[in-house]
Design goal:
73 residues, mainly alpha, elongated
Length: 73
């Protein structure tokens, strides 16, 4: 069946392959679905790290704070 999804071939180390297999079996889902789920979580963590780095740059003693109501009105 044709799909519009991008396919990605990866060579996995044996320990990663085994971990995905165990987790997929535990969660009763295909290994590819579990791998995609784990990649999605990893991307969210990367995004959180990026936003945290931006926030830390802005968190200085002379920073000006704007109250919540002013921002959203």
């Amino acid at each position: 069946m044709p799909t519009n999804k991008k396919r990605l071939n990866m060579s996995l180390p044996a320990d990663i392959e085994e971990a995905i297999a165990i987790l997929a079996k535990r969660d009763a889902m295909p290994e590819a679905t579990k791998a995609l789920h784990l990649i999605t979580i990893a991307l969210e963590l990367e995004e959180d790290d990026l936003w945290n780095a931006i926030a830390e740059k802005r968190d200085i003693k002379s920073a000006t704070f704007i109250d919540h109501d002013s921002v959203w009105t």
